Amino acid sequence: MSIPAPVATGTFLYLILGAVLLGLIFASRLTGRLTKDNAEIANVVVIIGTISTWLFWLCAWMHQWHPLIKPIYEE
To answer: Over the range 26-59, which residues count as b (16 or more CB within 10 Å of their CB) and which as e?
Structure first.
């Protein structure tokens, strides 16, 4: 059983988004805009936020792909 293409594409995009955000935090740390403690907190927030939004997107996509409740149309 293979992974559907939209799930693989969406997962890849969320990985890219998380990497870009972590890169921005790293750049902010290098330039001195963030202290070490704030950068560590920002890393945790970005990782948890990226995973949470990816999981929410995946659940919404799966719900639309195979709905649990099918409408019954009256004639």
So the answer is: eeebeeeebeeeebeebeeebeeebeeebeeeee
